[in-house]
């Protein structure tokens, strides 16, 4: 029996982790999967928690399926100690009764512009997103709409974008062929994707929302499956470790 190739899953976890400053390389992540141990990952930050939560979230939704309960179970699986972690995993926010459920998403680095999601989120809100996918063509575009709508709804205290990306993959049923939906591989495209997602958050009408969503879709990798499964090159992960990095995008 041949050993499972974890290259695609490693790239998916690395992509998912980029939503929370995951610092381990694709090669490190693959080694952790191969060894079934987080030991090869960077130990100084929160990479171990993100790695374990990703696997637990995937396992949870595989068992339950893409549904309201499946989405909740993804977030409920995020129980590993982490700074950006829900205090009550799987709990739908209700800002009327719990101050920790009142959240805002800062759109710019100086907090001059913020997005305020609904204070109260119900199962009916999640069902609306599930139903919209079920009556759609159920293609990748519809699955990315699941990601965008869940991310904008912010149904949980934290871990919402990670929950949304796993849920989108569950909707598209990418597990069998490992053709995971991932964020852009190129850093500049990822910045464009994130900016478009922020525009999607702020959109107050269907036209603005569609324009923002189209911007998101435009920068997704067209050769995603080929990129996911290609061998990890010796320089793919090591290059930035040999140079002094000067970020183009700075805070403040």
From TrEMBL:
It comes from the Bacteria. Signal peptide: none annotated. InterPro entries: Fido, Fido-like_dom_sf. Residues 66-218 form the Fido domain. This is Fido domain-containing protein. It comes from Levilactobacillus koreensis.
């Amino acid at each position: 029996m041949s050993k499972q190739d974890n290259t695609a899953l490693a790239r998916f976890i690395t992509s998912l982790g980029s939503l929370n400053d995951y610092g381990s390389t694709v090669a490190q992540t693959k080694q952790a999967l191969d060894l079934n141990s987080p030991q090869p990952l960077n130990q100084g930050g929160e990479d171990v928690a993100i790695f374990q939560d990703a696997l637990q979230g995937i396992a949870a939704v595989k068992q339950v399926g893409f549904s309201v309960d499946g989405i909740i179970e993804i977030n409920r699986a995020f129980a590993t100690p982490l700074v950006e972690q829900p205090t009550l995993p799987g709990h739908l926010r209700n800002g009327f009764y719990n101050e920790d459920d009142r959240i805002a998403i800062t759109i710019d680095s100086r907090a001059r512009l913020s997005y305020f999601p609904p204070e109260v989120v119900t199962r009916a809100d999640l069902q609306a997103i599930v139903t919209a996918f079920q009556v759609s063509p159920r293609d990748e575009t519809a699955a990315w709409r699941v990601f965008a709508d869940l991310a904008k709804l912010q149904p949980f205290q934290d871990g919402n974008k990670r929950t949304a990306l796993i849920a989108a993959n569950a909707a598209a049923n990418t597990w069998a062929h490992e053709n995971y939906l991932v964020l852009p591989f190129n850093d500049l495209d990822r910045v464009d994707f994130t900016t478009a997602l922020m525009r999607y958050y702020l959109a107050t009408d269907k036209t603005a929302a569609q324009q923002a969503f189209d911007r998101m879709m435009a920068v997704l990798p067209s050769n995603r499956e080929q990129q996911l499964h290609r061998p990890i090159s010796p320089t793919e992960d090591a290059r930035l470790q040999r140079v002094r990095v000067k970020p183009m995008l700075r805070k403040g």
